[in-house]
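User: Sequence for PadR family transcriptional regulator below. Tokens please.
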Amino acid sequence: MSIGQTFLGLLESSPRHGYELKRLYDERFGQARPLHYGQVYSTLARLLRSGLVEVDGVEPGAGPERKRYAITSAGVTDVERWLAQPEKPDIYLQNTLYAKVVLGLLTGRDAADILDVQRTEHLREMRELTRRKAAGDLADQLICDFALFHLEADLRWLELTAARLDQLARTLHIPAPRPDAAPGLDRSTT
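Assistant: Structure tokens for PadR family transcriptional regulator:
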């Protein structure tokens, strides 16, 4: 998620201080990964340099002066463009899992074990999301549903891959394991 564009969207309704943006962001989007204050202020500094926000006011505080930020017309255009642009479907996890399965096969490890470990982690995450969804408001429920549907698709891929491990090993030209071969050894040299 783009923190900068999210801040612009939060600023569109009214000017806000950095700590207000952090609170709103964490409340709406960052339950699992709240922002660090350094991230908030470095993002605001970048948006300010880019002309997407401006300082709307400065108030004295107990510590440093508190700046209130407002979105500029260029910021409104930027957030409109971002909201209208579709997101590229995120396929990194499947690529990583595929690489692990192939490397498991290539190194003589049990690729089925790799898939089982991942399946267990997916199921654990699904249980956690289901608990969060049951206790959450509508926003939480929608966020959890999105994640759950993706995890379900990953589980289907894990099952399909497990069913095709022998075929994948043949495609990769991996010889059948010898009973005395230790995992992680190159079989061509044993």
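The two ends are 48 Å apart (CA to CA).
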